[in-house]
Amino acid sequence: MRRTGTPSWLSTRRGEPGLPGRGDETAATPPSVARVWAVGGGKGGIGKSFLVSNLATVAARSGKRVILIDADLGGANLHTCLGVRAGERISLSDYFEERVLDLEKVAVETPIPGLRLILGALGHTGKAETTQEQRTALAKAVRRLPADLVIFDLAAGTDRSTIDFFLEADDGFVVTTPEPTAIENAYAFLRAAYYRKLAGALSESNVREVVRVAMDQRNERGIRTPGDLLGEIDRLDHAEGDRFRRVLATFRPHLVVNQVRDTEEVKMGFSITSVCKKYFGIDIDYAGYICFDDNVWRSVKDRRPLVLAYPSSDGALYVRRIVKKLLGA
Amino acid sequence: MIPLGEQNYYDLLEASPEGTPQQIERAYRIARATYAPSSTATYSVFSSDECASILRRIEEAYAVLSDARLRREYDARLRRVEPGAGLSSGPPPVATAPRARPAPPPLAARAEPRAFDAELDTGLAPENGVFDGNVLRRIRLSLGIELEEISATTKINEHHLRAIEGNAYEHLPPPVYLRGFLKQIARCLSLDAGAVADSYTARMRESAAKRG
After folding, report:
1. Structural domains present in chain A
2. Per-residue pLDDT tens digits for A271-302
3. Domains parsed from chain B with CATH numbers
4. Which residues touch B11 (CB under 8 Å, ≥6 apart)?
5. List of chain A residues whose C-beta atoms are within 8 Å of the C-beta of residue B140
6. What ipTM was assigned to the predicted interfaces of this complex?
7. Interface test with B, best of A274, A276, A285 (most B CBs within 10 A)
């Protein structure tokens, strides 16, 4: 494991006044500019961990230094997709509970050269929630990891921590399958991310309050859609309305449709893109789809990424296409 | 974010103003499927009334953009409005125009990347430059185009299309027709027609040579 910085036992504790926070202990190392991806989608069982492990494997094999973070603290299983046994191994909880101060030291090797993993097992306290402070520290530390690409595998649902990791990333991926349940949850996920991003970007407290009200779909002010919200904000404060539009222009999640069986389901990606444009006013990038492929469950059973176990399968081809599109690798 | 009522016909169909008639047709098919009453894609976001209203506007847009003469007239109006037109200036467009007449010009014509166009450019061309039947099929699927749509546009029989995609060389049409068919298919998929025809037929000859 490469490490040239100050030993972690010399590190300052986070939150001490006047001292650099956690994550600064590697200041001696030239700062790496890791690109950060986060993969979410709302519903469980739609292939987030499958996608993350395969995207990461493709990137690592093309020569990128990749670190995966299993941010699903309550239901971590990314390690299994990569053939890593969790056991009593060091995990993200050790970092959150400050038993290990250097994030890189929490990363373990995987069978794939160039690919390391930060496990998401529960800590001793068994707590799956994180505090805002912990998340901010993690987001900062992630940027200093000696990696070219860091990928967060997010939990199902729209918890604040999940949405924060999603918004913190350079590229956020929303995964869905063509089923109505998965699509409904994908929209719920996007809605949560959308309002949280807006609330974080707007500066006037009365305007932020309107966003907060709008998040409740049955609010009394009659704000039903993001379009209504924009109208309401424009009425209150035109400058904030303009800020709203600028923030929207920077919110460009990627969409991946998994388990596609036919042309109709390929088109689902275009349809979701269209709905997002017309409803949220955002340009989603339809990054790709992955066709339904029996080799996928075989590879999961083998505990090996599909792209290694069945490199010539259709599923592997589509995963490589997504990576190529995003990284040009 | 442009309110639905102020979107121009290209925005409504999410098609490029430079789009070919085939691309307009394709955008329309996708839009129609997206906002259809039974659509999974709109469920939980738009109410059925909202979908019906969007669908009406999509039909209105398509009625104009699918007609070469009406589209020319509409484009001319767009160009007149475009220079310096702000989002908040100009009269609101009439929501329900008669099908046969071009609707009032929208407030602004925008030039920003469309999902469909972006998808056309990225990651679809084969790595080795070989366009065999599998590659053509994958590209077609990724664009959400059905075989019957290609058949309807090109008048090529579906069983020929299937044979081409299946690399079923023994069932292919005679060579004189094959090149023309391949070029037509390539155009439907926004691919380089000459390159596809050359690559496919070269591959076919290699295969024939191998079998002796």
Report:
1. 31-327 (3.40.50.300)
2. 999 999 988 888 899 998 898 888 998 998 88
3. 1-113 (1.10.287.110), 123-211 (1.10.260.40)
4. B2, B106, B110
5. 263
6. 0.78
7. A274
